[in-house]
């Protein structure tokens, strides 16, 4: 979607990547300096009276340099921006929840002297930079630490904006560090643009949409927001979620019609679920394809590279890895099927495993249509079991089995008479 928007509105990929690098790397570097430097100087082992003075003395110049050079770095990278390519999108690398529809509004500049910035309204006290609006235009953007009064505007700066390359190249060099911190603020571009008669327009969104990720707590919060959006999306599409809060999706999850998903299901990347299928509790799906009218679980794990055919049944405590399960086939209980190709209507008994790994290489097991694999069988790959074949329960099968044959690979049963009486006499 983002690629389509860039093509539609003529935003260069080089420009977008450069912005990501500058904003993402600068923020990450400054956040990560604290721990390693504290360890290097053994600050954590010092008395509390010396700890904070030394920490500030060592770390403050580093943070200050990063802040001062933030605007200057942006100034330097303007050398890679093509004046003829008329738009530049400034987008933070740690804002994952922004919608493409919002970006579409932002980058749709109607003329060269138009600038658009994303903002949101927040009445509660906060530390966001603020927009000063005059005659429906952005007169300036003021960083929170530069405010002198408590009565701050409610229009908060997201930091994301779009402008013409020509305007940026002309005005960015004019940014000064005439502020209390002696820093170069990229946001000072808007005051320069307003005074140069640019049309500085604001596009409003939600605070949630512009949420930045700076630590694991915020990452978890963003993940929760995204999961709720995905759950709402699938519920509106007609997917039945018995307990929505316990089902986890991926951004690229695809689900057909009339699908039912029970509680405590985790769906990883690259999963597609066909129409009328049911996913039972405590199932884990990852990089796999589930056909139509399939039953999975409970307590099943479908690993990457697996393709479960229509009307198949994967039961409780079953693990499928990089295998193709044919239409109508059943692997109902306590089984492992790895690197295997099963035909149609195959029955795999409880406790069956495909022995696909010899400690160095993986090997394939092929099982033909209508084959019956008895319980507690070990199928040692590479192996081919042809259609309509039967495998006796408890067998270890190491050789290919021909069409319609019965294969039994176990020791002959031995019976010792009166064993219990003899045992009790000891």
Characteristics:
alpha/beta, 26% strand, single chain, elongated, eight-stranded parallel beta sheet, 426 residues
Note down, in words, how this protein is organized:
This protein has nine helices and 31 strands. It is an alpha/beta fold. Strands 7, 8, 10, 11, 13, 14, 16, 17, 19, 21, 23, 26, 29 and 31 form a 14-stranded parallel β-sheet that branches. The protein has an eight-stranded parallel β-sheet with strand order 9-12-15-18-20-22-25-28, with no helix packed on it. Strands 1-5-2-6 form a four-stranded mixed β-sheet. The longest helix is centred in the first third of the chain and has 30 residues, at 48-77. The relative contact order is 0.06.
What's the quick description here?
The protein has 9 helices and 31 strands. With 426 residues, the chain is α/β, with parallel strands linked by helices. It is elongated.
Strand content: 25-35%
User: What do the pLDDT scores average to?
Assistant: 84
pLDDT < 50 runs, ≥5 residues: 13-33, 46-58
Principal-axes geometry comes out as elongated
Distance between the termini: 79 Å
Record field, number of beta strands: 31
Q: What can be said about the biggest beta sheet? A: 14 strands, parallel
* SS element count, helices: 9
The secondary-structure class comes to alpha/beta
Radius of gyration: 32 Å
Helix content estimate = 25-40%
């Amino acid at each position: 979607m983002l690629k389509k928007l860039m093509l539609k509105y003529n935003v260069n990929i080089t420009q977008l990547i450069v912005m990501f690098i500058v904003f993402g790397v600068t923020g990450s570097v400054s956040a990560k300096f604290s721990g390693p430097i504290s360890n290097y100087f053994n600050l954590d082992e010092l008395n509390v009276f010396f700890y904070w003075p030394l920490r500030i003395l060592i770390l403050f110049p580093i943070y200050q340099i990063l802040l001062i050079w933030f605007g200057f770095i942006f100034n330097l990278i303007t050398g890679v921006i093509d004046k003829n390519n008329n738009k530049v999108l400034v987008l933070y690398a740690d804002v994952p929840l922004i919608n493409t529809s919002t970006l579409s509004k932002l980058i749709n500049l109607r003329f060269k002297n138009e600038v658009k910035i994303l903002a949101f309204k927040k009445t509660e006290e906060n530390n966001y930079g603020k927009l000063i609006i005059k005659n429906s235009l952005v007169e300036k953007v003021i960083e929170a630490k530069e405010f002198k009064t408590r009565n701050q505007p409610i229009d908060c700066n997201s930091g994301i904006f779009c402008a013409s390359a020509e305007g940026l190249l002309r005005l960015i060099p004019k940014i000064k560090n005439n502020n209390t911190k002696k820093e170069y603020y990229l946001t000072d571009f808007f005051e320069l643009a307003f005074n140069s008669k640019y049309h500085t327009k604001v596009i409003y969104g939600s605070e949630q949409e512009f949420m930045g990720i700076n630590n694991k707590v915020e990452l978890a919060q963003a993940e929760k927001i995204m999961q709720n959006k995905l759950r709402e999306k699938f519920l509106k599409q007609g997917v039945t979620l018995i307990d929505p809060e316990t089902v986890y999706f991926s951004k690229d999850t695809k689900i057909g019609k009339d699908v039912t998903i029970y509680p405590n299901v985790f769906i990883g990347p690259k999963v597609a679920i066909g129409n009328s299928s049911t996913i039972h509790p405590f199932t884990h799906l990852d990089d796999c394809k589930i056909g139509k009218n399939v039953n999975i679980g409970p307590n099943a794990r479908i690993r990457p590279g697996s393709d479960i055919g229509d009307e198949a049944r994967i039961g409780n405590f079953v693990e499928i890895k990089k295998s193709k399960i044919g239409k109508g086939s059943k692997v109902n209980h306590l089984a492992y099927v790895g690197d295997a190709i099963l035909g149609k209507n195959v029955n795999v008994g409880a406790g069956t495993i495909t022995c696909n790994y010899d400690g160095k290489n993986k090997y394939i097991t092929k099982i033909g249509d209508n084959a019956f694999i008895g319980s507690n069988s070990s199928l040692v790959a590479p192996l081919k079991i042809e259609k309509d074949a039967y495998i006796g329960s408890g067998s270890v099968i190491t050789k290919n089995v021909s069409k319609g044959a019965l294969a039994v690979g176990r020791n002959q049963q031995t019976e010792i008479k009166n064993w219990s009486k003899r045992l009790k006499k000891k």
